[in-house]
Protein backbone atom coordinates (compact mmCIF):
# COMPACT_ATOMS: atom_id res chain seq x y z
CA UNK A 1 0.00 0.00 0.00
CA UNK A 2 1.29 3.49 -0.87
CA UNK A 3 2.00 6.27 1.61
CA UNK A 4 -1.03 8.15 0.27
CA UNK A 5 -3.22 5.16 1.03
CA UNK A 6 -1.82 5.02 4.55
CA UNK A 7 -3.02 8.57 5.09
CA UNK A 8 -6.54 7.52 4.19
CA UNK A 9 -6.42 4.55 6.59
CA UNK A 10 -5.46 6.78 9.47
CA UNK A 11 -8.23 9.22 8.62
CA UNK A 12 -10.82 6.46 8.43
CA UNK A 13 -9.82 5.04 11.81
CA UNK A 14 -9.76 8.37 13.57
CA UNK A 15 -12.70 10.18 11.99
CA UNK A 16 -15.09 7.59 10.58
CA UNK A 17 -15.69 6.96 6.87
CA UNK A 18 -18.42 9.57 6.38
CA UNK A 19 -16.23 12.34 7.77
CA UNK A 20 -13.19 11.59 5.61
CA UNK A 21 -12.46 14.21 2.97
CA UNK A 22 -9.32 12.87 1.22
CA UNK A 23 -7.21 15.09 -1.02
CA UNK A 24 -8.63 15.27 -4.56
CA UNK A 25 -5.44 13.70 -5.88
CA UNK A 26 -6.14 10.43 -4.03
CA UNK A 27 -8.03 7.82 -6.04
CA UNK A 28 -10.26 6.66 -3.13
CA UNK A 29 -12.35 4.26 -5.19
CA UNK A 30 -9.24 2.34 -6.22
CA UNK A 31 -7.63 2.41 -2.76
CA UNK A 32 -10.35 0.57 -0.83
CA UNK A 33 -12.84 -2.07 -1.76
CA UNK A 34 -16.15 -2.22 0.16
CA UNK A 35 -14.73 -5.21 2.03
CA UNK A 36 -11.68 -3.17 3.10
CA UNK A 37 -13.86 -0.37 4.41
CA UNK A 38 -16.11 -2.85 6.24
CA UNK A 39 -13.08 -4.42 7.97
CA UNK A 40 -11.74 -1.01 8.97
CA UNK A 41 -15.08 0.03 10.40
CA UNK A 42 -15.46 -3.22 12.31
CA UNK A 43 -12.00 -2.76 13.79
CA UNK A 44 -12.88 0.81 14.77
CA UNK A 45 -16.13 -0.34 16.42
CA UNK A 46 -14.28 -3.11 18.25
CA UNK A 47 -11.78 -0.57 19.58
CA UNK A 48 -14.56 1.79 20.66
CA UNK A 49 -16.39 -1.03 22.44
CA UNK A 50 -13.17 -2.03 24.21
CA UNK A 51 -12.56 1.56 25.34
CA UNK A 52 -16.16 1.93 26.51
CA UNK A 53 -15.93 -1.34 28.44
CA UNK A 54 -12.69 -0.30 30.14
CA UNK A 55 -14.14 3.12 31.02
CA UNK A 56 -17.16 1.41 32.59
CA UNK A 57 -14.87 -0.88 34.56
CA UNK A 58 -12.78 2.08 35.72
CA UNK A 59 -15.91 3.86 36.97
CA UNK A 60 -16.82 0.72 38.93
CA UNK A 61 -13.27 0.35 40.25
CA UNK A 62 -13.34 3.92 41.56
CA UNK A 63 -16.81 3.40 43.04
CA UNK A 64 -15.61 0.27 44.86
CA UNK A 65 -12.68 2.06 46.47
CA UNK A 66 -13.04 2.81 50.18
CA UNK A 67 -14.33 6.29 50.85
CA UNK A 68 -11.51 8.60 51.86
CA UNK A 69 -11.74 9.66 55.51
CA UNK A 70 -12.59 13.31 55.84
CA UNK A 71 -12.37 15.38 58.99
CA UNK A 72 -15.59 16.62 60.56
CA UNK A 73 -14.45 20.18 59.98
CA UNK A 74 -14.30 19.66 56.20
CA UNK A 75 -17.43 17.52 55.88
CA UNK A 76 -20.07 19.56 54.08
CA UNK A 77 -23.62 20.03 55.34
CA UNK A 78 -25.15 18.26 52.30
CA UNK A 79 -23.03 15.17 53.09
CA UNK A 80 -24.25 15.16 56.69
CA UNK A 81 -27.85 15.55 55.52
CA UNK A 82 -27.34 12.76 52.98
CA UNK A 83 -26.10 10.41 55.70
CA UNK A 84 -29.00 11.32 57.98
CA UNK A 85 -31.52 10.76 55.19
CA UNK A 86 -29.95 7.40 54.31
CA UNK A 87 -30.05 6.25 57.95
CA UNK A 88 -33.77 6.97 58.07
CA UNK A 89 -34.30 4.41 55.32
CA UNK A 90 -31.55 2.00 56.46
CA UNK A 91 -31.41 2.34 60.26
CA UNK A 92 -28.79 0.63 62.39
CA UNK A 93 -29.59 -3.02 63.06
CA UNK A 94 -28.34 -2.42 66.60
CA UNK A 95 -30.75 0.43 67.31
CA UNK A 96 -33.57 -1.58 65.69
CA UNK A 97 -32.63 -4.84 67.38
CA UNK A 98 -35.87 -5.19 69.36
CA UNK A 99 -37.97 -4.77 66.21
CA UNK A 100 -35.88 -7.37 64.37
CA UNK A 101 -36.23 -10.04 67.05
CA UNK A 102 -39.92 -9.20 67.49
CA UNK A 103 -40.43 -10.08 63.82
CA UNK A 104 -38.92 -13.51 64.50
CA UNK A 105 -41.54 -14.64 67.01
CA UNK A 106 -42.75 -18.11 66.05
CA UNK A 107 -40.14 -18.30 63.28
CA UNK A 108 -36.73 -19.89 62.82
CA UNK A 109 -33.98 -17.33 62.21
CA UNK A 110 -31.48 -18.46 59.56
CA UNK A 111 -28.23 -16.46 59.41
CA UNK A 112 -26.34 -15.75 56.18
CA UNK A 113 -22.97 -14.02 56.54
CA UNK A 114 -20.55 -12.62 53.98
CA UNK A 115 -16.88 -12.95 54.96
CA UNK A 116 -14.54 -10.14 53.80
CA UNK A 117 -15.61 -6.78 55.23
CA UNK A 118 -18.30 -8.46 57.32
CA UNK A 119 -16.63 -11.05 59.56
CA UNK A 120 -13.08 -9.90 58.85
CA UNK A 121 -11.69 -6.44 58.13
CA UNK A 122 -10.73 -5.52 54.57
CA UNK A 123 -6.95 -5.90 54.36
CA UNK A 124 -4.37 -5.22 51.66
CA UNK A 125 -3.34 -8.88 51.34
CA UNK A 126 -6.45 -11.07 50.80
CA UNK A 127 -4.50 -14.10 52.03
CA UNK A 128 -4.27 -12.44 55.46
CA UNK A 129 -7.94 -11.63 55.95
CA UNK A 130 -8.08 -13.53 59.22
CA UNK A 131 -11.15 -13.49 61.43
CA UNK A 132 -10.50 -12.04 64.90
CA UNK A 133 -10.83 -14.53 67.76
CA UNK A 134 -13.78 -12.67 69.28
CA UNK A 135 -15.63 -12.74 65.95
CA UNK A 136 -15.07 -16.50 65.61
CA UNK A 137 -16.54 -16.99 69.07
CA UNK A 138 -19.59 -14.89 68.13
CA UNK A 139 -20.18 -16.87 64.92
CA UNK A 140 -19.70 -20.16 66.77
CA UNK A 141 -22.31 -19.17 69.36
CA UNK A 142 -24.77 -17.99 66.70
CA UNK A 143 -24.44 -21.33 64.89
CA UNK A 144 -25.41 -23.14 68.12
CA UNK A 145 -28.83 -21.51 68.06
CA UNK A 146 -29.51 -20.76 64.39
CA UNK A 147 -28.68 -22.44 61.07
CA UNK A 148 -25.75 -20.36 59.81
CA UNK A 149 -24.13 -20.07 56.38
CA UNK A 150 -21.03 -18.24 55.15
CA UNK A 151 -21.74 -16.94 51.63
CA UNK A 152 -18.65 -15.52 49.94
CA UNK A 153 -16.87 -14.92 46.66
CA UNK A 154 -13.90 -16.75 48.12
CA UNK A 155 -13.04 -20.35 47.37
CA UNK A 156 -14.99 -22.54 49.79
CA UNK A 157 -11.84 -24.28 51.06
CA UNK A 158 -10.10 -20.95 51.59
CA UNK A 159 -12.91 -19.41 53.64
CA UNK A 160 -13.22 -22.60 55.70
CA UNK A 161 -9.49 -22.31 56.52
CA UNK A 162 -10.23 -18.80 57.84
CA UNK A 163 -13.39 -19.64 59.78
CA UNK A 164 -12.52 -23.17 60.99
CA UNK A 165 -15.96 -23.89 62.40
CA UNK A 166 -17.88 -27.11 61.85
CA UNK A 167 -21.66 -27.07 61.87
CA UNK A 168 -21.89 -24.19 59.36
CA UNK A 169 -22.92 -24.15 55.70
CA UNK A 170 -20.21 -22.81 53.40
CA UNK A 171 -21.15 -21.30 50.03
CA UNK A 172 -17.99 -20.31 48.15
CA UNK A 173 -17.44 -18.74 44.72
CA UNK A 174 -20.59 -16.59 45.07
CA UNK A 175 -22.64 -19.63 46.00
CA UNK A 176 -21.52 -21.83 43.12
CA UNK A 177 -19.83 -24.26 45.52
CA UNK A 178 -21.96 -25.18 48.55
CA UNK A 179 -21.35 -27.73 51.25
CA UNK A 180 -23.19 -28.23 54.51
CA UNK A 181 -22.65 -30.14 57.75
CA UNK A 182 -23.28 -33.87 58.02
CA UNK A 183 -26.81 -35.17 57.51
CA UNK A 184 -27.20 -35.63 61.25
CA UNK A 185 -26.90 -31.87 61.83
CA UNK A 186 -29.73 -30.81 64.15
CA UNK A 187 -31.26 -28.00 62.07
CA UNK A 188 -31.68 -29.85 58.80
CA UNK A 189 -35.17 -31.24 58.28
CA UNK A 190 -34.21 -33.67 55.49
CA UNK A 191 -31.90 -36.67 55.61
CA UNK A 192 -29.59 -35.87 52.70
CA UNK A 193 -26.23 -34.15 53.07
CA UNK A 194 -25.83 -30.82 51.25
CA UNK A 195 -23.22 -30.64 48.49
CA UNK A 196 -23.91 -28.58 45.38
CA UNK A 197 -21.77 -27.16 42.57
CA UNK A 198 -23.50 -24.95 40.02
CA UNK A 199 -20.86 -24.88 37.27
CA UNK A 200 -18.47 -27.83 37.48
CA UNK A 201 -17.95 -27.88 33.70
CA UNK A 202 -16.27 -24.46 33.94
CA UNK A 203 -13.44 -25.58 36.23
CA UNK A 204 -10.84 -26.23 33.45
CA UNK A 205 -11.71 -22.87 31.86
CA UNK A 206 -11.35 -21.04 35.18
CA UNK A 207 -7.90 -22.60 35.65
CA UNK A 208 -6.87 -21.40 32.16
CA UNK A 209 -8.08 -17.87 32.86
CA UNK A 210 -6.29 -17.82 36.21
CA UNK A 211 -2.96 -18.75 34.60
CA UNK A 212 -3.48 -16.23 31.78
CA UNK A 213 -4.28 -13.40 34.20
CA UNK A 214 -1.27 -14.19 36.38
CA UNK A 215 0.93 -13.92 33.29
CA UNK A 216 -0.78 -10.81 31.87
CA UNK A 217 -0.79 -8.81 35.11
CA UNK A 218 2.61 -9.75 36.53
CA UNK A 219 4.11 -6.48 35.24
CA UNK A 220 1.55 -4.37 37.15
CA UNK A 221 2.82 -3.91 40.74
CA UNK A 222 0.41 -4.70 43.54
CA UNK A 223 -1.92 -6.94 41.51
CA UNK A 224 -3.07 -10.10 43.26
CA UNK A 225 -4.81 -12.81 41.20
CA UNK A 226 -6.71 -15.38 43.27
CA UNK A 227 -8.14 -18.67 42.01
CA UNK A 228 -11.44 -19.12 43.84
CA UNK A 229 -12.22 -22.40 42.05
CA UNK A 230 -15.39 -21.29 40.26
CA UNK A 231 -14.27 -17.71 39.73
CA UNK A 232 -11.04 -15.72 39.44
CA UNK A 233 -10.53 -12.59 41.54
CA UNK A 234 -8.16 -9.82 40.47
CA UNK A 235 -7.47 -7.72 43.57
CA UNK A 236 -6.26 -4.16 42.90
CA UNK A 237 -6.28 -2.82 46.46
CA UNK A 238 -2.49 -2.35 46.31
CA UNK A 239 -2.34 -1.18 42.67
CA UNK A 240 -1.57 2.49 42.03
CA UNK A 241 -4.62 4.17 40.51
CA UNK A 242 -2.47 5.31 37.58
CA UNK A 243 -2.11 1.63 36.61
CA UNK A 244 -5.82 0.80 36.71
CA UNK A 245 -6.27 1.45 32.98
CA UNK A 246 -3.45 -0.94 32.15
CA UNK A 247 -4.87 -3.55 34.52
CA UNK A 248 -8.39 -3.26 33.11
CA UNK A 249 -7.02 -3.59 29.57
CA UNK A 250 -5.17 -6.81 30.42
CA UNK A 251 -8.28 -8.27 32.06
CA UNK A 252 -10.35 -7.31 29.01
CA UNK A 253 -7.88 -8.97 26.62
CA UNK A 254 -8.08 -12.23 28.56
CA UNK A 255 -11.85 -12.09 28.99
CA UNK A 256 -12.38 -11.51 25.26
CA UNK A 257 -11.14 -15.05 24.64
CA UNK A 258 -13.80 -16.56 26.92
CA UNK A 259 -17.33 -15.49 25.93
CA UNK A 260 -18.84 -17.94 28.44
CA UNK A 261 -17.35 -15.94 31.30
CA UNK A 262 -18.40 -12.52 32.63
CA UNK A 263 -16.84 -9.81 34.77
CA UNK A 264 -18.37 -8.40 37.95
CA UNK A 265 -16.94 -5.89 40.42
CA UNK A 266 -16.59 -5.95 44.18
CA UNK A 267 -14.68 -3.91 46.75
CA UNK A 268 -11.31 -3.30 45.06
CA UNK A 269 -11.64 -6.54 43.09
CA UNK A 270 -12.56 -7.57 39.56
CA UNK A 271 -14.13 -11.02 39.40
CA UNK A 272 -14.40 -13.31 36.40
CA UNK A 273 -17.04 -16.00 36.70
CA UNK A 274 -19.28 -18.22 34.54
CA UNK A 275 -22.29 -16.71 32.81
CA UNK A 276 -24.61 -19.12 34.61
CA UNK A 277 -27.70 -17.75 36.32
CA UNK A 278 -26.35 -18.19 39.80
CA UNK A 279 -25.38 -15.71 42.49
CA UNK A 280 -25.56 -15.17 46.26
CA UNK A 281 -29.31 -14.65 46.08
CA UNK A 282 -29.87 -18.00 44.41
CA UNK A 283 -27.49 -19.59 46.91
CA UNK A 284 -29.66 -18.19 49.72
CA UNK A 285 -32.76 -19.72 48.14
CA UNK A 286 -31.00 -23.05 47.62
CA UNK A 287 -29.91 -23.20 51.26
CA UNK A 288 -33.38 -22.33 52.55
CA UNK A 289 -34.74 -25.18 50.43
CA UNK A 290 -32.01 -27.54 51.67
CA UNK A 291 -32.97 -26.65 55.24
CA UNK A 292 -36.62 -27.42 54.52
CA UNK A 293 -37.86 -23.81 54.41
CA UNK A 294 -38.44 -23.36 50.67
CA UNK A 295 -42.10 -22.31 50.90
CA UNK A 296 -42.37 -21.84 54.63
CA UNK A 297 -43.74 -18.89 56.55
CA UNK A 298 -41.98 -20.13 59.67
CA UNK A 299 -38.54 -18.80 58.76
CA UNK A 300 -36.81 -15.41 59.06
CA UNK A 301 -33.65 -15.21 56.90
CA UNK A 302 -31.14 -12.54 57.94
CA UNK A 303 -28.32 -11.75 55.50
CA UNK A 304 -25.37 -9.54 56.49
CA UNK A 305 -22.89 -8.37 53.84
CA UNK A 306 -20.89 -5.40 52.65
CA UNK A 307 -20.26 -6.04 48.95
CA UNK A 308 -22.06 -5.31 45.70
CA UNK A 309 -22.47 -9.05 45.16
CA UNK A 310 -24.48 -9.26 48.40
CA UNK A 311 -27.14 -7.09 46.78
CA UNK A 312 -28.38 -10.19 44.93
CA UNK A 313 -29.27 -11.72 48.30
CA UNK A 314 -30.75 -8.48 49.65
CA UNK A 315 -32.95 -8.26 46.56
CA UNK A 316 -34.24 -11.82 47.02
CA UNK A 317 -35.26 -11.03 50.61
CA UNK A 318 -37.08 -7.90 49.41
CA UNK A 319 -38.91 -9.91 46.75
CA UNK A 320 -39.83 -12.67 49.22
CA UNK A 321 -41.05 -10.02 51.70
CA UNK A 322 -39.48 -12.29 54.25
CA UNK A 323 -36.39 -11.63 56.34
CA UNK A 324 -33.93 -8.74 56.39
CA UNK A 325 -30.79 -7.64 54.60
CA UNK A 326 -28.18 -5.76 56.63
CA UNK A 327 -25.54 -3.75 54.75
CA UNK A 328 -22.14 -3.22 56.39
CA UNK A 329 -21.00 0.24 55.31
CA UNK A 330 -19.76 3.48 56.84
CA UNK A 331 -21.06 5.56 53.94
CA UNK A 332 -24.45 5.78 52.22
CA UNK A 333 -24.89 3.39 49.29
CA UNK A 334 -27.75 2.42 47.05
CA UNK A 335 -28.91 -0.89 48.50
CA UNK A 336 -31.80 -3.33 48.84
CA UNK A 337 -30.86 -3.95 52.48
CA UNK A 338 -33.34 -2.95 55.18
CA UNK A 339 -30.80 -2.15 57.91
CA UNK A 340 -27.16 -1.16 58.23
CA UNK A 341 -24.09 -1.70 60.40
CA UNK A 342 -20.94 0.38 60.04
CA UNK A 343 -18.14 -2.19 60.39
CA UNK A 344 -17.29 -5.77 61.44
CA UNK A 345 -17.12 -4.78 65.13
CA UNK A 346 -20.83 -3.85 64.93
CA UNK A 347 -21.55 -7.15 63.18
CA UNK A 348 -19.93 -8.91 66.13
CA UNK A 349 -22.04 -6.90 68.57
CA UNK A 350 -25.21 -7.72 66.64
CA UNK A 351 -24.41 -11.46 66.66
CA UNK A 352 -23.67 -11.38 70.40
CA UNK A 353 -26.93 -9.61 71.15
CA UNK A 354 -28.78 -12.17 69.05
CA UNK A 355 -27.25 -15.01 71.09
CA UNK A 356 -28.01 -13.28 74.41
CA UNK A 357 -31.62 -12.71 73.33
CA UNK A 358 -31.98 -16.37 72.32
CA UNK A 359 -30.55 -17.57 75.63
CA UNK A 360 -32.94 -15.37 77.60
CA UNK A 361 -35.99 -16.35 75.55
CA UNK A 362 -34.99 -20.01 75.76
CA UNK A 363 -34.60 -19.75 79.53
CA UNK A 364 -37.94 -17.96 79.88
CA UNK A 365 -39.65 -20.70 77.82
CA UNK A 366 -38.22 -23.38 80.14
CA UNK A 367 -39.44 -21.56 83.26
CA UNK A 368 -42.92 -21.24 81.77
What would your notes on this structure say?
There is one protein chain. The protein is built from twelve helices and twelve strands. The protein is α/β, with parallel strands linked by helices. Helix 1 crosses helix 3, helix 6 runs parallel beside helix 12 and helix 10 (280-290) packs across helix 11. The N and C termini lie far apart (95 Å). The model is unreliable at 1-30 and 66-77 (pLDDT under 50).
The radius of gyration over CA amounts to 25 Å
Order of helices and strands: HHHHHEHEHEEEHEEHEEHEHEEH
What's the total count of β strands?
12
Q: What is the averaged pLDDT score?
A: 82
Percentage of helical residues? 40-55%
Structural class of the helix and strand makeup? alpha/beta
Spatial strand arrangement across the major sheet: 5-4-3-2-1-10-11-12
Low-pLDDT segments: 1-30, 66-77
| Dominant shape | globular
Q: What is the count of DSSP helices, taking H or I runs of 4+ residues?
A: 12
How far apart the termini lie comes to 95 Å
The protein's oligomeric status is single chain
Percent of residues in beta strands? 5-15%
State the major sheet. Answer: 8 strands, mixed
Amino acid sequence: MTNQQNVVVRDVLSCGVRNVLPPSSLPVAKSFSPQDLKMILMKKLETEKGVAKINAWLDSMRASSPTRIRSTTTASLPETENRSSWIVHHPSALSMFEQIVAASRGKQIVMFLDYDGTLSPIVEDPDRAFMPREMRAAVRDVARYFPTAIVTGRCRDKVYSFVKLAGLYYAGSHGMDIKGPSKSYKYKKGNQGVHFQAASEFLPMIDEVYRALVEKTKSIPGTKVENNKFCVSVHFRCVDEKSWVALAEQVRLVLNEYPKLKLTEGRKVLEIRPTVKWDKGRALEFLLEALGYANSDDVLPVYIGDDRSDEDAFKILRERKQGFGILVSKSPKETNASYSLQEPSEVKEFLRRLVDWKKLSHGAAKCA
